[in-house]
Amino acid sequence: MFRDPHSAAVPEQAKTRHLVLDLTIDMDARVLRGTATWDMEIAEDAEVAIFDTRGLTIHGVKALTSRGALAAPWTLGKDDPILGRALTVDLMPKTKAIEIAYSTSPDAAGLQWLEPSQTAGKSKPFLYSQAQAILARTFIPCQDSPGVRITYAATLRVGGGLEAVMSAIRDAKVTDSAEGRMFTFSQPHPIPSYLIALAVGDLAKRDVGPRSAVWAEPAVLDRASTEFSELERMITVVEGLYGPYAWNRFDVLVLPPSFPFGGMENPMMTFVTPTLLAGDKSLVNVVVHELAHSWSGNLVTNATWNDFWLNEGFTVYLERRAVEALYGVATAERQWTNARRALEATCAGMKNHAWDTYLRLKLEGRDPDDGMTEIAYEKGALFLRRLETEYGRPVFDAFLKRWFADHAFGPVSTDEFIGCVYDHLCGSDPDKLMRLDMNRWIDGAGIPNDAPPAASDVFASVERAAAAFNKSGVVPTDPWSTDEWLRFLDVIEPRNVDDLRALDAACGLSGRGNAEVLARWIETALRHGMNDVVPVAETFLVAVGRRKYLKPIYGALIAAPGIDGKKEARRIYARARPGYHAISRATLDKIVGVAAS
Ligand code: BES
Ligand code: ZN
Q: How far is the CA of 317 from the centre of ligand 2 (A)?
């Protein structure tokens, strides 16, 4: 029987099917308190039901049976820093549901509680959850495995005139009481626990399409709804490629800047970082990516985190196909080409632990967060592009469409994928299968030789400009896109720091509003010894908590030639760390050192 190495649950014995969540949100104490009631599917011979928990206080457990509610014996297992503690509940005869009364800890890793000062409005606190990969168990006792799907209904009670949203449909009726406002939600489609999400704050909503709205703090709403005005067009394009959108609505919530990711594909309510608000829609590919998860990930879900590439590699492939349809081949090719460079760098950096470059990950005994590298994303997407090249677009698109239809609302493993390629793509022809040599991609290191080459001509003007800059410090004057700037900053080898200063003065790089370009500029300037950029870095690092930017900037700072970079990094980290999410802190504590706390 296949086991998810990151969950204690034994779903063949007792499996969760539906959750009724009833929670009071205490913004002052930073605690969620209430009950999670689980409808269960229980095998004849089952004696216990097992849930995952981490840092939860369990107040009591009841078995809801056909004879009424009975107190059920329960135990908490040994604590593991990554997996938490298994909650084992003894089953009574005819148990239908299990009600768990619990409260969360103020430092639950899956919840971030923000001070008013960390929000755009500066006057009200904010809370949001981030459950992927295995943090749902830090705020709900659950079977926290992507192979187990549940529907849910939730009641949230919130004081202070705040709004609440979830990865679900919110009922129009909001009840006001002495305890605050009461919001009710329902998620009618079966989802894995990592897609349960909530956010609470001073939020406003604006419709931008027939099935889409943008949610944000009032001060951000205008900018956000302008940036994301094209949600309906995006949905229609992906539907045209891979079949109908299965989730009724696609709303986007813009979070405060400490959000550790670019985006998170919570069903019906994608969460995004405000660093996407560049003003010119140049970073909306992240929204396209989260939308694409509505097919790859949310509809068809990796069975375990070892199969993470089935979520993210598929989604990057879909994202690029949608970007191509929406914004043209040249834009998509630039993104493929920039990503290829990043993938090569990642593979080079993993030389000494090459098994981490296999598509099929080996995350047993590790934090699944370790699998969140370019491998699942870009090697995964490149493998699908390889298949597209081999069989042609029409055949490969039909294959993907069928993959989503056949596995809708279910889990998929890497072995199942291999089987489907054989059955539905190779025409069961062993010669074709041999030629593909899927093992080299799936259980082999690095980028296989048969990888389709990156387009060589999409950065022609950038490469010319970079050569001129490297040779004689000539600054570029072309009106470049974000992707072109990123390429330029990646490939320049400045003669000296003065050339970099001149570049900054002419192109205003230190003052860029586009976070992607600004972050890359800071990193590049630091690497090449332009230490006058340190104050710019500091401002950025204190304001923004997106891990993808923090990692390279702190890394470049530590290695900065000519200054005590490590000391600077620690000083800045000490200032910035209290504002970072637990996920970003966990990563940076390893890079910069916990001494900073
Ligand atoms: N689902 C991921 C974020 C994630 C992965 C959170 C694993 C926790 C564990 C999301 O879809 C994602 O991939 N976001 C990317 C953006 C994307 C354009 C590559 C990000 O946040 O950078
Ligand atoms: Zn993703």
A: 11
Whether pLDDT at 595 is above 60: no
In a shared domain, residues 29 and 115: yes
Residues annotated as catalytic are: 290, 377
Question: Over 60: is that where the pLDDT of 597 sits?
Answer: no
Domain assignment of residue 2, yes or no: no
163 DSSP β-pair partners: 201
What Rg do the C-alpha atoms of the chain give, in angstroms?
24
Task: Say how many Å lie between the first and final Cα of the chain, rounded.
Answer: 44
Which among 549, 511, 552 is positioned nearest to 533, based on CA atoms? 511
Quick check: 270 and 245 in contact, CB under 8 A? no
42 and 190, same domain (yes or no)? yes
Which pLDDT score, from 0 to 100, does residue 427 have?
80
Ligand 1 neighbourhood includes 372 CB (under 6 angstroms): yes
How many structural domains comprise the chain?
A: 4
Asked if residue 399 and residue 537 are part of one domain, the reply reads no
Residue 15 is predicted with a pLDDT of 98
pLDDT category, 342, cuts 50, 70, 90?
Answer: very high
Residue 449 lies in a domain: no
- Cβ of 548 closer than 6 Å to ligand 1, yes or no, is yes
Atom 10 (ligand 1) nearest CA = 264
For residue 166, give the CATH number of its domain.
2.60.40.1730
Region 466-494: mean pLDDT is 97
Task: State in Å: Cα 315 to ligand 1 middle.
Answer: 10
Are residues 186 and 38 part of one domain? yes
Do 470 and 407 share a structural domain?
no
Residue 1: predicted pLDDT: 60
* Tokens coding 422: 């054989």
Ligand 1 atom showing the smallest separation from residue 262 Cα? 21
CA of 264 to the centre of ligand 1 (A): 6
Site to probe by mutation for ligand 1, drawn from 194, 259, 289 as the one with most ligand atoms within 8 Å of Cβ, is 289
Q: Is residue 452 part of a domain?
A: no
Greater model confidence, 430 or 114: 114
pTM above threshold 0.70: yes
Cβ count within 10 A of residue 513: 12
